[in-house]
Design goal:
The complex is a heterodimer of chains A (about 240) and B (about 500).
Chain A: E1 2-4, H1 10-22, E2 27-34, E3 47-53, E4 63-70, E5 83-88, E6 104-107, E7 128-131, E8 144-150, E9 171-177, E10 189-193, H2 196-213, E11 225-230, E12 240-241
Parallel strand pairs in A: 1-2, 2-3, 3-4, 4-5, 5-6, 6-7, 7-8, 8-9
Antiparallel strand pairs in A: 9-11, 10-11
Chain B: H1 4-7, E1 12-16, H2 26-30, E2 36-39, E3 44-47, H3 57-61, E4 67-71, H4 84-96, E5 99-102, E6 117-119, E7 140-142, E8 151-154, E9 157-160, E10 168-170, E11 174-176, H5 186-199, E12 203-204, E13 221-225, H6 234-239, E14 242-246, E15 257-259, H7 266-272, E16 280-282, H8 292-305, E17 312-317, H9 322-331, E18 336-340, E19 349-350, H10 351-356, H11 361-374, E20 382-386, H12 392-401, E21 405-408, H13 410-416, H14 438-441, H15 446-471, H16 476-479, E22 486-488, H17 493-499, E23 502-503
Parallel strand pairs in B: 11-21, 12-13, 13-14, 14-17, 17-18, 18-20, 20-21, 22-23
Antiparallel strand pairs in B: 1-4, 2-3, 5-19, 6-22, 7-10, 8-9, 15-16
Classes of the chains: A alpha/beta (about 240), B alpha/beta (about 500).
Chain lengths: ~240, ~500
C-alpha cells in the first residue's frame, strides 16, 4: 500500500499508516515525506518504506516493526526503541538510538552528536547501531548496553568519531574502524583490540549491514577496528560521601 | 586510619535505662546500622552511638521503653557561622572526599510561607456550611480544558458537542508524588498504589518503571518518563492512566539521579529493564530536550504512542524563572504541569543542591498561576503543587493560590512510618520504606501501610471540607485560585505582591 504524504500533517499521516497496518497491510510505502515526525511510533510489526526525509523521532518507542528510509533522517531516530529495525540510506541527525533497548539501526552515512546515548541491553533485548560514516562528539554517552559500531567508510583521513566518546559509559561495547586518539575518549572507557569473540559478533552484524546497503563484507578485517568498553559498571560509585 | 572516629562526635547518643532493659535483643535485631550489640558472655546489650541515625526504630519497638535517643551532649563550641552541621560536613569531606549526600527534603530553617498565609472564614455576611450535613464537592479533574464549550439541542435536550481532552478524576485533590520502585521498597510501592485506588486518586511510578504486580492498579498510576528512560516502552506508556515527563525535581533541580548498583536487584532490574548490579544513571537533562520546542516533541511523541488517549504531565522544579518556563511547557502541549518546590523530598541528593537550589513552592505556584492567567492559557493545563505539603491547610492554601491539586511524598512516607532520619540513600531504612534489603522491607506490611495512607487522605479530605465550609464554599472549584481567601502575615509588600494576596487586616 502507498500513501502520499504531500500536504498531510504528521498526526493524520501516522493515523493513515496505523490504519493501513490494522487493515492487514504488510508493507506501507510513504511517498514525499518531508519532515513528518514520529513515523512508526510504537509500531509492533509491519514494514514502512519512507521516500523522502522523515522528521524527528522516527520510530520512537518502536516495538518490532521495520522502517526503511530512502533519504536522510533527522534527530532522535529510534528514540527509546524496544525492538525492530531502522535502515537509513543516507545521513541521520543527533541522538540516534537514544535509550534504545533493542532492535537494530543501520545508517549508511554519518550521524550527528550523542549517537547511541544511553543505549541499554536487558535479557533478550540487545540494541545494535551501525553507522557507515562518522559520528560527532559524545558517541555512546551513558551507554549501558548493546553494540555501537562506526565504520568510517569513505571519509578519507577523518577520525571515526568526535570527542568525549563513551563519557559516562557503564555497559555495552563500541567498535570504531580506524584510529582513535586518547584525547577523544571519555574517562570512563578503556581502549582494547578486538578478540576473536568480538569479531564474531561484530562480523555477523557487519554481514547484515552489508546486505542492507549492498556492500562487500570482505572489505572489513578485524585489525581495522578498536574496541571501547567501560572501565566499570559503576562509574560514579565513589563520588559521594555518606 | 579513620580520622572520622576522633574528629567527629556522634550526632546522637543512645541512653539505655539498665533497670528497664530486659536484654531481649529487639533493638539489636531492628537496627540495620549495627548500633546495638548483645554480649553473650556478659548478657548485656551495648550500644555504640556512632552509627545512630535517630530513626527511632529501636526506641519505638523496645517493649520496656528502655531506650532514649538524644542529640549528642558534647556540642561544638557555639558559633553562629561555623555551625555543628557545617563542621561535621567539613570533617567528613576532608576524611573521605566526595559529594555530600542526603535524603528527604530541605531541613534548613528557612521561612515556611504556608505558615505566613491565613485562610478566611464566613461571619454574618455569608453563611458558613457544615460539611457533616451538607453536600461538599472535592471532585477534581486534571487535564487540558477546552477554550470554549459548544452544545447542540437534540430533541429539546442540550448535548455537548465539544470533544474534551482526556482527564484524570480525583476524589481528593491530593496525589502521591513520584517515588520510584528502587528508591522505595516493593511494599511501599504497593501501599501507595493500593491507597490511590481505594481513595480514588493517583500514585506515580517515578522513573523506576512499573512492577508487573502493580499493573492491576495501573488505572490509578501515573507512569513517569525520565532522562534514563528506565522501564519505558510502549506497553508501559499505554498501561498507566497518564504519562509524566520528569524534567526536574524540587530537591535537586538541574541534576540527574544515580540509583547505586547495589540496589539494582533482580526485581528492580526487571522493572527498570537494566542488568542487575549496574548503576541506573539518569542524566541531568533529557538529551532529546534542549528547548521548549524539544519538550513539545517528546510530549507529542508520547501522545502519538498512546494515541492521544491520556493526559501528559510535565514535572519541573521551582526555579527562578519558573513562570516563563511553565508558560513554555503549557504551550509545548503539557496537559498538566507539576511544580516541585525546593522543599520537595528525594531518596538521594547532594546536600548542597538540596539546601541551596530552587525556590519555595508558594512563590512558584502563585507566579505560575498569575502568568498563565495573564497569558490566557491557564485553562490549557492543570497545575499541581508539590514539595513540602505537610497538612490539609497547606493543601487548601495551595488551591487558593492557584493549584488544581497537590502532590504529597514526604507526608505519605511519614504516614507509612518514616521518621525522617534522612538516610534514604544508605539503603538501610529501618522502617522498610527506602530499602531493598528483604530483612528490612518485610517490616512494612503493605496492607497496614495502605490503611494508614487511606486514613491520612480521608482525614485530610474531611479537614479540607471543614476549611471550605468555614469559608462558605461548597466546591473545591470555587476555592481554586481564589486568593481573596488568603491573607499574609509578616510578609513584605513585595512578597505579598508576588503571592497576589493582601496582608492580614486589609
Amino acid at each position: 500500500m502507498t500513501i502520499n504524504a504531500t500536504g498531510v500533517y504528521y498526526r493524520q499521516l501516522n493515523e493513515q499508516i496505523r490504519a493501513a497496518f490494522n487493515n492487514g497491510a504488510d508493507e506501507v510505502v510513504v511517498e514525499n515525506v518531508c519532515g513528518h515526525r514520529y513515523l512508526g511510533t510504537s509500531l509492533r510489526s509491519g514494514r514502512i518504506v519512507i521516500n523522502g526525509v522523515p522528521g524527528n523521532d522516527l520510530g520512537a518507542f518502536m516495538d518490532g516493526a521495520e522502517i526503511i528510509v530512502r533519504g536522510n533522517a533527522q534527530d532522535g531516530v529510534g528514540n527509546t526503541m524496544n525492538a525492530g529495525k531502522i535502515v537509513i540510506h543516507g545521513h541521520a541527525g543527533d541522538i540516534l538510538g537514544y535509550a534504545q533497548r533493542g532492535g537494530k539501526i543501520f545508517v549508511q552515512d554519518s550521524v550527528g552528536y550523542r549517537a547511541g546515548i544511553h543505549m541499554k541491553a536487558y535479557h533478550d533485548h540487545f540494541p545494535v547501531v551501525v553507522v557507515g560514516g562518522t559520528a560527532q562528539d559524545y558517541l555512546g554517552e551513558y551507554m549501558a548496553g548493546g553494540i555501537l559500531a562506526v565504520l568510517n567508510l569513505n571519509s578519507g583521513d577523518q577520525l571515526a568519531a568526535g570527542d568525549y566518546i563513551g563519557t559516562g559509559m557503564h555497559g555495552g561495547v563500541i567498535y570504531l574502524r580506524g584510529t582513535v586518539e586518547a584525547y577523544q575518549l571519555g574517562q570512563e572507557v578503556g581502549l582494547e583490540c578486538l578478540e576473536e569473540s568480538d569479531w564474531q559478533s561484530l562480523g555477523s552484524i557487519l554481514g547484515e549491514y552489508c546486505t542492507e546497503f549492498d556492500r562487500d563484507p570482505a572489505q572489513f578485517c578485524q585489525g581495522d577496528f578498536v574496541k571501547l568498553t567501560p572501565r566499570s559498571t559503576r562509574p560514579y560509585g565513589r563520588l559521594y560521601v555518606y | 586510619m579513620q580520622l572520622r572516629k576522633w574528629l567527629v562526635e556522634p550526632e546522637f547518643r543512645i541512653e539505655r535505662d539498665p533497670e528497664k532493659c530486659i536484654q531481649c535483643g529487639v533493638c539489636v535485631r531492628q537496627c540495620a546500622n549495627d548500633v546495638h550489640e548483645y554480649d553473650e558472655e556478659e548478657e548485656v546489650v551495648y550500644s555504640d552511638s556512632t552509627n545512630c541515625v535517630s530513626c527511632h526504630r529501636c526506641a519505638t519497638l523496645c517493649p520496656t521503653d528502655a531506650i532514649s535517643i538524644r542529640p549528642f551532649p558534647l556540642e561544638f563550641r557555639p558559633n553562629a557561622v561555623w555551625t555543628a552541621s557545617t563542621l561535621r560536613n567539613l570533617y567528613k569531606q576532608a576524611d573521605i572526599g566526595g559529594v555530600l549526600l542526603t535524603g528527604m527534603g530541605n531541613d534548613q530553617d528557612q521561612p515556611m510561607y504556608w505558615d505566613r498565609m491565613l485562610l478566611n472564614a464566613s461571619q454574618v455576611t455569608n453563611p458558613s456550611i457544615d460539611p457533616l450535613r451538607e453536600p461538599m464537592e472535592l471532585l477534581t479533574y486534571i487535564g487540558r480544558k477546552p477554550d470554549s464549550v459548544q452544545f447542540e439541542r437534540i430533541a429539546g435536550q442540550p448535548r455537548m458537542t465539544t470533544q474534551l481532552e482526556p482527564q484524570l478524576q480525583l476524589q481528593v485533590p491530593v496525589m502521591f508524588a513520584a517515588m520510584s520502585y528502587g528508591s522505595i521498597s516493593y511494599n511501599a510501592s504497593v501501599a501507595l498504589a493500593q491507597a490511590a485506588q481505594q481513595v480514588g486518586t493517583f500514585a506515580n511510578t517515578g522513573e523506576g518503571g512499573l512492577h508487573k504486580d502493580l499493573r492491576e492498579y495501573a488505572d490509578h498510576m501515573i507512569v513517569q518518563v525520565a532522562s534514563g528512560r528506565f522501564g519505558v516502552d510502549s506497553d508501559y506508556l499505554n498501561t498507566g492512566a497518564a504519562v509524566e515527563i520528569k524534567i526536574g525535581q524540587g530537591a535537586k533541580p538541574g541534576i540527574g539521579g544515580h540509583l547505586p548498583g547495589e540496589k539494582v536487584d533482580a526485581a528492580i532490574s526487571a522493572t527498570r529493564m537494566i542488568p542487575e548490579g549496574t548503576d541506573a544513571l539518569s542524566p541531568a537533562p533529557h538529551h532529546d530536550i534542549y528547548s521548549i520546542e524539544d519538550l513539545r516533541q517528546l510530549i507529542y511523541a508520547i501522545k502519538e504512542a498512546v494515541c492521544y488517549s491520556k493526559p501528559i504531565l510535565v514535572k519541573i522544579a521551582a526555579v527562578h524563572n519558573v513562570s516563563a518556563i511553565a508558560s513554555g511547557c503549557v504551550r509545548a502541549g503539557a496537559d498538566v504541569l507539576v511544580i516541585d518546590g525546593y522543599r520537595g523530598g528525594t531518596g538521594a541528593a547532594p546536600t548542597m543542591v538540596r539546601n541551596n537550589v530552587g525556590i519555595p513552592i508558594e512563590f512558584a505556584l502563585a507566579a505560575v498561576d498569575s502568568r498563565l492567567r495573564e497569558e490566557g492559557i491557564r485553562h490549557q493545563a492543570s497545575l499541581i503543587a508539590s514539595g513540602g505539603i505537610r497538612c490539609s491547610a497547606d493543601v487548601a492554601k495551595a488551591i487558593a493560590l492557584g493549584a488544581d491539586a497537590v502532590n504529597i511524598g514526604t507526608a505519605a512516607l511519614v504516614a507509612m512510618g518514616c521518621h525522617l532520619c534522612q538516610k534514604c540513600y544508605t539503603g538501610k531504612c529501618n522502617w522498610g520504606i527506602a530499602t531493598q534489603d528483604p530483612y528490612l522491607t518485610k517490616r512494612l506490611n503493605p496492607n497496614i501501610a495502605t490503611r494508614r495512607l487511606v486514613s491520612l487522605l480521608e482525614s485530610w479530605a474531611l479537614e479540607i471540607k471543614e476549611l471550605m465550609g468555614g469559608m462558605g464554599i461548597n466546591a473545591v472549584e470555587s476555592l481554586r485560585g481564589n486568593r481573596e481567601h488568603l491573607r499574609g502575615l509578616g510578609l513584605t509588600n513585595r512578597e505579598l505582591q508576588i503571592l497576589g494576596i493582601k496582608a492580614a487586616g486589609e
